[in-house]
Amino acid sequence: PRSFGDNQDRFHSIVKALWGTGLGIVRSAGHHRGPGEKLQMSLWVYQPERDELLNWASSDRVWRDPSTLDPVPVDWSSDFVASQAFCSGTMVSRDTESYAATRWNHVVGFPVYSYSIRGRLPVGAITLASSRPMIGSVLHRAEATVRNQVIPQLAKLAGELLEPRQSNE
Predict the structure, then answer these.
(1) Is 87 helix (H, G, I), strand (E, B) or coil?
(2) Which helix (H) or strand (E) holds 129?
(3) Of 104, 112, 122, 108, nearest to 153 (Cα)?
(4) What distance in Å separates the CA atoms of residue 150 and residue 103, rounded to the nearest whole number?
(5) Which secondary-structure segment (H or E) carries 142?
(6) From residue 55, how far is each of 12, 42, 74, 124, 148 by CA, in Å?
(7) What is the C-alpha separation between 96 and 82, in angstroms, rounded?
(8) Are strands 92-95 and 72-73 parallel, antiparallel or unpaired?
(9) What pLDDT does 121 receive?
């Protein structure tokens, strides 16, 4: 449906802006990506009725068909860093170059929470990815900055974005 495409455009723009904020923090701390290194951010939304995460928006692509959004089970043993971070409630950093199905060779994930009138609710996860293996990734070289500055900022903004709506029940 057209509304899906419009929403994808909107969320893609939001995620690109959020990732721009994160990259700005990394650069201002003196860290720069290596030659040819590609970086990406994805926003994963928790689907509580199915206990799954859905990669809803990404800084490097826009989906046009909702059937192409593959849900990932919330499971620590998942190969998906987003699921591992969501399950553990902490940052997870993995070298993923051995996975043939991805062009991202180093992925950092962390949970996103909403702080609403209902309390602290897990609402999703964010993954940051590099085309370089962990050892050559700016995400690894800037780990302290990512952990102490980028993640809190992105998690706060994403938590506000994913704030559950109040129902009229």
Answers:
(1) helix
(2) strand 119-130
(3) 112
(4) 23
(5) none
(6) 11, 7, 12, 9, 24
(7) 13
(8) unpaired
(9) 86
> How is residue 148 annotated by DSSP?
I
∠ Cα 78 140 156 (to 5°): 70
CA 41 to chain centre: 5
Residue with tokens 């974005």: 161
- Give the tokens for residue 75: 């499971």
Helix ranges (DSSP H) in 73-120: 81-88
Query: What kind and span of H or E run contains 11?
Result: helix 2-28
Q: What is the pLDDT of residues 112-125, one digit of tens each?
A: 998 876 778 889 99
Q: What is the pTM of this model?
A: 0.90
3-state secondary structure of 12: helix
Q: Evaluate the CA torsion angle 69, 89, 37, 7 in order and state its sign.
A: positive
